[in-house]
């Protein structure tokens, strides 16, 4: 399909609102930028993963950008995630997907481990 001149729209015709949301990060909880940052916007919170393959915490903000808390359960144990590929929400559980088709489930408020699902065949 070719794009014709009449197909091109001005930005203000396709986007109604743009809001800059600064994250209010405490000095003692710096956030590292990575080439892969999983993010999830949920009704009341923003879950934002940072770091690299060896250190990948998840930071939680409210929808105004105020920092709430961070957690990091990365590791090789049964209640830990090895790597974060993507974040999802299933009911009141935060799902952390890895690259092997497995996701770990945590309570979205307390981050208590709730189990895992394996989608590999």
UniProtKB/TrEMBL annotation:
It comes from Belliella filtrata. It holds the Pfam family DUF5128. It comes from the Bacteria. This is 6-bladed beta-propeller.
